[in-house]
Design brief:
InterPro entries: F-box-like_dom_sf (IPR036047), F-box_dom (IPR001810), Kelch-typ_b-propeller (IPR015915), KIB1-4_b-propeller (IPR005174), SCF_F-box_component (IPR050796). This is F-box domain-containing protein. Pfam families: Beta-prop_KIB1-4 (PF03478), F-box (PF00646). It comes from Hibiscus sabdariffa. The chain is mainly β. The chain has 6 helices and 30 strands. The chain has helices at about 35-40, 45-50, 55-60, 65-70, 155-160, 335-340; strands at about 80-85, 90-95, 100-105, 120-125, 125-130, 135-140, 145-150, 160-170, 175-180, 190-195, 200, 205, 205, 225-230, 235, 250-255, 255-265, 270-275, 280, 290-300, 300-310, 315-325, 330-335, 350-355, 360-365, 370-375, 380-385, 385-390, 390-395, 400. Strands 8, 9, 10, 11 and 12 form a 5-stranded antiparallel sheet that branches. Helix 1 (about 35-40) crosses helix 4 (about 65-70). The radius of gyration is 24 Å and the shape is globular.
Length: about 400
Amino acid sequence: MEKADGCISRPSRKRKLPQGYDMLNFSLDELSDDLLERVLSRLPTSMFFRLGSVCKRWKSVAASESFKLACSRIPSREPWFFMVDPSLNQSVVFDSAERSWKKLNHPPLLSNDCNRDSIPVAAAGGLVCFRNTSGDYLVCNPVTGSCRELPPVNVDSLDQPLHAIAVNAYSNYSYKLVLVSGELSKLSFKVYNSSADCWEEEIMLRRKTNDCAELDLNDDNEDAVYFLSKAGNVVATNMQKSPSKQFSSVITRKDGEEIVYFLSSSGTVVACNLTQKHFSEYPRLLPVFFEYSIDVVECKGEMLVVMLSEFFESASFRVWRFDEKTKTWNQIASMPPAMSHEFYGKKVDVNCVGAGDQIFICLSSVELCSYVLCDIVSNEWVELPKCCMKGEAMDFMSAFSFEPRIEACV
């Protein structure tokens, strides 16, 4: 039979339900364990905490290795943002799917005396990496609370200035931790490979020959911590406003190449190509005499720069992408002026993290503490509600993005 639009109708291949079957009375108990695991694995991760209280069968399913395998087959999950507060003794996240704050169980290993002051320094996949005061690293799954210490880094590596710490997750069972160190004229990187459970040999990076930018090659004072002032100058101090962002960096994978980006002490972006084993510096976005605060983020495999700047008695908040062909920075998103002007003159420190098309922004100063979620595709900027625990508002310095995955192994 032919339809009115000229298309030929085909017999329906849909399986008919038995006569008298009542879908309203359908129960998940009728599913096999395999099907039940596949159904439950598609629930939001926050629901996993409640599976054990439903019934004995669901509790057994939630604890099984086959359920973790079913969860690993889910291509992606809405990101959670692991928040960093001054006390460093609790695990608080912002759930971007439910738009709510959650407090997780803090891993016992991080409560040990030697790890009590550990700060989160990087995240990828379902894992967050911490660094303790001795310079050792711990990797944690915030959802399950599983945590372990990595083998110590070579003592010689600890003598070099550390610029960047980045994690690259290749699957839920394999990851690499990358450290970029050395003087800016002589950078090198070292990789911890979880598959081999060891640190690989240190590799030197050469300066890219066609790099027209000039790095600040002055020797740094190793006894002081350096950060970028709002005037773009390098300031030495024994205090760091956001210790977790001291090694602020991102890693991208594109066309088979892995590149780590970090901010130099003078506020420029340095790119370290781990595959080609060379480094280069990007052109400065603004002259040094401008008032600004800057951070680098990764969104869908590319590096972006987020900048809060002040000019003509107003503040602007913009997101920039670098065009490799024209060698210029192009604006891709901008906070509404009425919203950004609130930060004018308040010496706001900006700490950001990317996740897909979103950028989570922490803005903090003596006068305020605010959190904004930006969608770089729609250019939508939403100020998030305050996080209150036990009736008190919490202030966070920065955040790290990760996928809430119970199957992610440390």
